[in-house]
Amino acid sequence: MLTSVIIAKSSPPTSPNGSRPTSPNPMLENRHTAQAKRRKFMRRILMFRQMDFEFAMWQMIYLLVSPQKVYRNFQYSKQTKDQWARDDPAFLVLLSICLCASSVGFAIVLQLGVLHFFKFLLWVVFVDCIGVGLLIATVLWFVANRYLRVSGGNKPDVEWGFAFDVHLNAFFPLLIILHVVQLLLYIPLLDRSSFLSTLLGNTLWLIAITYYIYVTFLGYSALPFLRRTVAFLYPPCLVLICIFVISLLTNWNIARSVMYFYEYRVY
Fold first, then answer.
1. What is the pTM of this model?
2. Which residues pair with 149 in a beta bridge?
3. Fewest CB atoms within 10 A around its CB: which of 2, 68, 157, 228?
């Protein structure tokens, strides 16, 4: 008799007609919605003690040396947390710190005053990184869901948050090449009218943007429900090589032009 009581207490309740209830737990139902994920991310963005900065630094290092490992970790996150996008804002915080540090370097090279430095910083963070990133992530998110998703069955959609994470991942190596390496070489080597300066500066830009395209391609190719993701790799690289060749033929020093543009928009 005691055994039957325990079984009765542990069994889920039944409806009057004897059937089991089929409605899911509301907490489980809301756990995986985009709105719930966004609220969770925003709640943690000011909770520095809850951020895993060590893991975010690991991701940054491997984005430079082996980005495939980073996206392998995104696959593990999908299995354990049921979402592709990051739920920890530590990577975004560290990226923002890197942008602030590199902006100081640009302010020194361009000889910017305090006010112009803050204008430059706002441009770099909210336009170059976030604004352009929102545009690129939205376009690629739409293209991936509309044209690259495998048809048939209940195939998942590409999360917009994951598309933006892919942009942030690809932006970090570009930041290191163009805001660190290029900055160190600009005054002694790149700020010249010679063909060698043009070749070196434009090659840095070619490497940076090609790496951005490659890391972006790796991000979308990591999603098992997408096909023909090479569309994010070969066509952009072909266009980029054509621009590179034209820039060399016309002796267009992209590094100097961008520096002039940076200086122009803050004055």
1. 0.83
2. 226
3. 2
DSSP the chain: -HHHHHHHHHSPP--TTSPPP-PPPHHHHHHTSHHHHHHHHHHHTT-GGGS-HHHHHHHHHHHHH-HHHHHHHHHHHHHHHS-SS-S-THHHHHHHHHHHHHHHHHHHHHT--HHHHHHHHHHIIIIIIIIHHHHHHHHHHHHIIIIIBPPSSSPPPPPHHHHHHHHHHHHHHHHHIIIIIHHHHIIIIISSSSHHHHHHHHHHHHHHHHHHHHHHHHHHHT-TTB--GGGGTHHHHHHHHHHHHHHHHTT--HHHHHHHHHHHHH-
For the stretch 118-143, pLDDT in tens is 999 999 999 999 999 999 999 999 99
Reported residue count of the chain is 267
Which residues share a beta bridge with 187?
Answer: none
Tens-digit pLDDT profile for residues 33-56:
555 555 555 555 666 677 889 999
> Average pLDDT for residues 234-245, to the nearest whole number?
98
pLDDT of residue 34: 54
The letter for the amino acid at 62 is Y
Report the percentage of the chain scoring pLDDT > 70.
81
Give the integer Cα–Cα distance in Å for 60 and 47. Answer: 21
